[in-house]
Amino acid sequence: MIPGALGLRGHHKNLTLPVVIMAGEGDKVVFKRRSGQLKAAVTGSVLQVVRDGRAHDPLPSYEAGR
């Protein structure tokens, strides 16, 4: 785990804003199980698994078209 993320671990339960967690179905960096654990730690959060073969970066890159 990267140091910045490791330092925030345990603080997720303190979030009070709406949170959407996005994960790519094919992610080999952060496994779907870990995304589920994060969802469980953040009250009221929503987990959206992108199932179109995307991996670690589930959002399309808009920079590529420029």
Strand content: 15-25%
Strand order of the largest sheet: 1-2
| Unreliable residue stretches | none
Instruction: Bin the helical content.
Output: 10-25%
Shape: globular
The class by helix and strand makeup works out as: alpha+beta
Please trace the helix and strand order, writing H or E for each element.
HEHE
The tally of helices reads: 2
**Integer average pLDDT:** 76
Biggest beta-sheet profile: 2 strands, parallel
Distance between the termini: 32 Å
Give me the count of strands: 2
What is the radius of gyration? 13 Å
Kindly describe this structure.
The protein has 66 residues and is an alpha+beta fold. Helices cover 24% and strands 15% of the residues. The chain has a domain of 38 residues.
Which key features would you list for this structure?
66 residues, alpha+beta, two-stranded parallel sheet, 2 strands, 24% helix
How would you summarize what this structure contains?
The protein is an alpha+beta fold and 66 residues long.
